[in-house]
Design a protein that fits this description.
about 220 residues; about 0% strand; mainly alpha; globular
Amino acid sequence: MAPENLQFITELLFVVPCVLIALVFHEFAHGFAAYKLGDPTARNFGRLSLNPLKHLDLIGTLCMIFFRFGWAKPVPINTRHFKKPRRDMALTALAGPAMNLLLAFVGVLLHRILGRVFLEAVLTSAGSYGTTVLSVTFFFITTFVSVNLSLAVFNLIPIPPLDGSRLLMIVLPPRAYMWVAQNERYIMLVLMVLLWTGILSIPLTSLMNLILSGMNALVGLIPFL
């Protein structure tokens, strides 16, 4: 097997479980937020679940695996159950990216702790096996942080059907928002082209790095880390 093929397969072994975790918790957060705000639709459709099969969208999952930016199957929401539909819809939409940011922060924290353990293991000559396990774990956490940051940042783009589009309900006039919703198919096509060509990856990656720097700075404020 060619080295590049072996590297690709190895990366998939790390990326796939990270993508599954990120997508599942993202959609679960949407459903849970909606449920807490009075809408039982997600629960009634069985979407308050951590079962990946309940949430995965084929195209969105493949985009996450190969481009690191993607989406899952939208959680069904009925705004008629909300006391304040516009506000509660925005909060429900933000719950998904917020969950991924939280997971990414936990990953950054574990990354810092692992760095300490890894350094001590090397200094005390813990053995090649222990060092290898730590290296694999270190790489998995790095991938986990990257995947969750990418999912959060991508879904905050304010175009349908991404979560950021729900925020447009607050700032756009109803007629303008309706136009955006009606042209969702064409907007998504443009989005896919931008992803495929890598044009969109540049600003999104820059934003991810900015958030990651902030998280590292925040973790650095914790004593002994």
